Amino acid sequence: MTLDSLILSKDPEVLRVIRPTLEKLSIEVEICHEARAGANILISDKFDAIIVDCDDLNGGLAVLQGLRTTPSNKNSVTFAILNGKRTTTQQAFGMGANFVLQKPISALNASRCFLAALNFMVKERRRYFRQPVKLLVKVVFEGKTLHATSTNISEGGIALMVREALPKGAAPHLKFSLPGKNVHLEVEAEVAWVDVKGLAGFRFHNVPKASQEQLEQWLDEQMEQDFPGAKQRMAAANSGASH
Fold first, then answer.
1. Phi, psi for residue 44 in degrees, rounded to 5
2. Which CATH superfamily is domain 3-128 in?
3. Residue 125: which region, alpha, beta or left (left: phi > 0; alpha: psi -120 to 50)?
4. Is pLDDT at 140 greater than 80 in this prediction?
5. Residue 82 and residue 53: Cα distance in Å, rounded?
6. Cα–Cα 20 to 30 A to 72, which of 42, 96, 120, 236?
7. With the CA atoms of 46, 22, 25 and 106 taken in that order, what torsion angle do they form, in degrees rounded to the nearest 10?
């Protein structure tokens, strides 16, 4: 698993500086030269970082303004590139940008900016990261206990194969243990969605702090296995942001 970025720009100097900076951080780069095509990509594809050339790409500013309304990328870390003549830094932040880069962009400034943002990217990836895992889960609902098998888990919920259908909105208790750890969790949950094949998505509620920390630590360990160096890059981001 890697972090993914989308650059919306046709400025060769922007691409010359930013692309290698992202690649040095092991961030995959996709480039789009047209705002309309980029907007269509952002409707369906999820990116950890979105870099928009707001002033020198026709329609770029509109893409920035609309990003927070796209289901896939409303929480993505967003960078606005400005030319100092049209959009102000304050306006860019008001439109949803998390970071702003002013042209001409130097390699040093780009590196500092993306290092400072890397921590946010990894945290956001963990927020929606779903770890495939097969767990035995007890579903306690209306005084009876059902047995289910998980397909994936995130810090906010879990997907289960349940033999007995549960209505959407039902609020069972879930009991399970994390593999490789002597950690037993019991959490309140809500049925968020169901499908005809017996698969159901459960959203966690009121998770005890200790249980949430244990789950997040376990997910971090799984991410580190799939995304080697994540912790080191986060440490580098923290160090770079402090200088």
1. -110, -30
2. Response regulator (3.40.50.2300)
3. alpha
4. yes
5. 7
6. 236
7. -150
Instruction: Judge if pTM exceeds 0.85.
Output: no
Quick check: 232 and 192 in contact, CB under 8 A?
no
Tens digit of each residue's pLDDT (9 = 90 or more) over 18-70: 999 999 988 999 999 999 999 999 998 999 999 999 999 999 999 999 999 99
Domain ranges of the chain: 3-128, 131-226
For domain 131-226, say whether CATH 2.40.10.220 is its number: yes
Separation between Cα atoms, residue 143 and residue 169, nearest integer Å:
17
